[in-house]
Sequence to fold (566 residues):
Amino acid sequence: MSTDSDYIKRNGTSKRRETVARVLWMVGGAIILPAILFLVWELAAVRLGSNTLLPRVGDVFEVLANPTRDLLGQGSLLYHVYISTIRVLMGFVLGALVAVPLGMAMGLSERLRNFVTPFIELMRPLCPVAWIPFAIIIFGGTTISNLFGQRFTMTIFDHIQTAQLFIIAWGAFFPVLINTIDGVRGVRQLWLEAAHTMGANRVQKWAKVILPASFPQILTGLKVGLGVSWMVVIAAELFPGPTAGVGYIMMEAYAQTEIQILAAGLITVGVIGALLNAILWVVHMLFANWQAKER
Amino acid sequence: MVNLSAITKSFDSLQVLSGMSIKFLPGEFTCILGPTGCGKTTLLRIIAGLLEPDSGVVQTPSQSMSMIFQQQTLFPWRSVLSNVCFPLELSGYPKRERVEMAKARLSEVGLSNVMKKRVYELSGGMQQRVQLARALVSNPSVLLADEPFVSLDEKTRYTLQNQLREIADRNNMTVVFVTHNIEEAVYLADRVVVMGNKRIQSEFVLSATHPRDRLSQWFLDNMLEVRKVFEDIVTLDLSADETCDTDEINDVQVVDEDDKLNQEGTTQVIK
Fold:
């Protein structure tokens, strides 16, 4: 005789309920996990009882809650975030502008791929941070203003050193390149054949099939590249040279044992990185979500 | 007109087509029938320009040609309407005109209500109908179809067969339709070309009007005639030790000793 245990029960759920559940999990994760972290931090800070070892959560949030307040006579947190963000965006765009076209060309041409890949694989393991001393030697303290002259002085470009741009671009370049190559190579041959039978020429096949089909993978590369760029800029700002940026102010705070500013800088780095990633996530949901749903 | 002359094609050491010559006349609906592995799809891909023959001459019209594939080839990043507009975009039609033409084709195949949907939101049958609409939207002079209805249920297949035939007749389209389904070939075709052993084995001209009655004596007689030749082809392919899908021989009868097979190819007229 059959019993309930012989059957598997599946309850239907509405799409709306699933969406609400998904959002709740995400929001919950964004609130609950940091809350646990801050609780543990506060308990440890109270136990240690030393602001120079581990500042209280309240002191750190006091810095974050006043982002326009001057820090150590070096400008506000908001100002330093602004400088770092501009550096990241410029370096990242520079790296991506080289990586995407090169990746597309390598994806399409086996000959080019065979020719360039050995060199790429030699260069790829070189960590961007390891390039910092070399970049400082080669580029010195040259800024964008120095490069482009009078027009750009007394602007933010006074703080954008070419050495940092090189390192950030280097960091972004490889993940974008590899993902672009893979994206182009992964385009289904059937789609190209269908386009061919409909009369598409080479340019049309590239613009209307290869580019949109490979876009999700390229976007993945851009996401990874942006994350690497943000990590690299902070590291680059810790070295001598820059006079502004989140990494710079963190180093200054460490030198003056203002550890709550150092911790606020760390949290800011994480939050900005997440925000930049969220922007690309929105782009993904708008233009590349078809890939996850395709059967 | 599409004209193939002395076409030969091999893949590595396996010869698939051997000196094949065939013409497809304007407005003619030709079904190419044959067991799996006999070279029908290879022939179609050579006509479409997706493969080059090892030798021989292929002449295709300078006007538009279109192809429906057996697998789904719709672009998942585009909506249904945008997919159907695609061939018209390539030809440079203005946006308003191509949207109107695409909507008209989708309406013909009964998909007016899913124009904004994405491909992954459609069933297999609906996807194939969208493919059909896309292939026909530019009113091609030649339509190539590679077993487009093979994965569909019977009802949907019959509906699409009728729609395809109707559109082809209305536009005087040359259609080259590959299938391994004898019933489908006899239902649709003006001419059935039976392939096997790397070449054309037999041809049947079917001159009855459309739509054809599947239960009529005419239909059943023609199916039997074509089936006899088809079964001979399968037996021939097996005896030649060629790669052949053994699923095709499940309903093969013993070869008639009175073998009507002509190695050079025949044209038999059946009314």
